[in-house]
DUF1656 domain-containing protein
Amino acid sequence: MIGEASFYGLYLPWLMVLAAGALLALWGVRRLLAATGLYRWVWHPALFDMALYLLLLYALSRLTSHLQ
């Protein structure tokens, strides 16, 4: 996963781009979980959100690994 992405001459590490995508996906998943009421079953929401973010980041990195 070593590389960079160029946005109008600004070079960003590829991991930063994936982290921003995972953050956007986390925002959507959190809203979905809150709307369905599934957060009532979560013991520690902050730890759950962190674990969910890491899972989304891992999934995005696996899905985009063929782009290198």
Summary: Residues 15 and 43 are 30 Å apart (CA to CA). The first strand starts at residue 4 and ends at 7.
